[in-house]
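sry for the spam today, last one i promise. struct tokens for design, 266 residues
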């Protein structure tokens, strides 16, 4: 890896730009850190959610067995002060969307459930959501689906523990909770795309949660270049070819500006 200490951020950005210009199949792997500049706290960074809330409250078992745990989630606007549809993409998301417009993006593999890549303009079929999403809620018995904000309204209108209108089953957001099985199709597709890419750019992830964190490693082991853009340290820093510390919302637009200029697309 190019040791950051020996190179300036400018030099590291130029190296990443070169890799993107040379690449045909870029996989962008994102975590909560790409969305903090949109106002969504991450989990393990400074002031992360897990520094305030017990992740044990967000396990699948707890959610399906404890009505109070369910109520805390439906009332997240009260408890966390926000709901998922309140947020907008930031410059980092728009820069990743431009990679698709330039024909460089194979796909985005995201751990995020905020839907901001799609809101920024990336095509649905280019976004693999390994940890599901918080935009949709599904009945665990019959599969009936509702938008999250619709169920939120039922709770605001007094429903203590909203149940499926079709069968009375438990309603749960489609986000993957701790202890819940990963979506098989998405996980297999993510592995396949990681192994086939020529460049994997990791943005805003501590790379500590598996199997998601395996994806950049699959890319590395398959001969792809790996670049990491992250504020905090990650588990893959020493193995990455390029490691740039800093805010995604500042670095990624700069990277795309230089890529477009090199491609004569500015
Ligand atoms: N720019 C760059 N990096 C940032 C920014 C930013 N603006 N803001 C935060 N970061 C970095 C943090 O320093 C941290 O290293 O992003 C990383 C986010 O790491 P985590 O909070 O661990 O988030 P993530 O890697 O996505 O967590 C993976 O854990 O709790 C589960 O299911 C949850 O999908 C989540 C998974």
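last one done:
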């Amino acid at each position: 890896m190019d040791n950051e200490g020996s190179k300036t951020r400018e030099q590291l950005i130029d190296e990443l730009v070169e890799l993107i210009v040379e690449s045909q199949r870029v996989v962008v792997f994102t975590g909560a850190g790409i969305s903090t500049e949109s106002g969504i706290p991450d989990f393990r960074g400074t002031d992360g959610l897990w520094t305030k809330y017990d992740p044990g409250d967000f396990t699948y078992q707890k959610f399906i067995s404890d009505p109070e745990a369910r109520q805390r989630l439906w009332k997240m606007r009260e408890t966390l002060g926000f709901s998922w549809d309140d947020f907008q993409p930031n410059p980092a998301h728009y820069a990743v969307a431009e990679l698709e417009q330039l024909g460089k993006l194979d796909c985005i593999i995201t751990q995020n459930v905020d839907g901001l890549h799609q809101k920024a303009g990336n095509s649905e079929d280019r976004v693999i959501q390994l940890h599901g999403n918080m935009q949709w809620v599904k009945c665990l018995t019959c599969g009936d689906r509702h938008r999250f904000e619709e169920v939120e309204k039922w709770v605001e209108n007094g429903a203590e523990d909203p149940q499926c209108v079709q069968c009375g089953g438990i309603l749960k957001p489609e986000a993957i909770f701790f202890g819940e099985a990963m979506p098989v199709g998405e996980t297999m597709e993510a592995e396949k795309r990681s192994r086939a890419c020529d460049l994997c750019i990791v943005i805003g992830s501590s790379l500590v949660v598996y199997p998601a964190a395996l994806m950049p490693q699959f890319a590395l082991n398959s001969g792809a270049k790996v670049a990491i853009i992250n504020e905090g340290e990650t588990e893959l820093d020493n193995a990455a070819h390029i490691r740039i510390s800093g805010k995604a919302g500042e670095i990624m637009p700069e990277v795309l500006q230089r890529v477009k200029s090199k491609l004569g697309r500015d």
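The pocket of adenosine-5-diphosphoribose is lined by residues 31-33, 36-37, 42-45, 48, 111, 131, 204-206, 208-209, 230-232, 247-249 (CB under 6 Å). ok im logging off now
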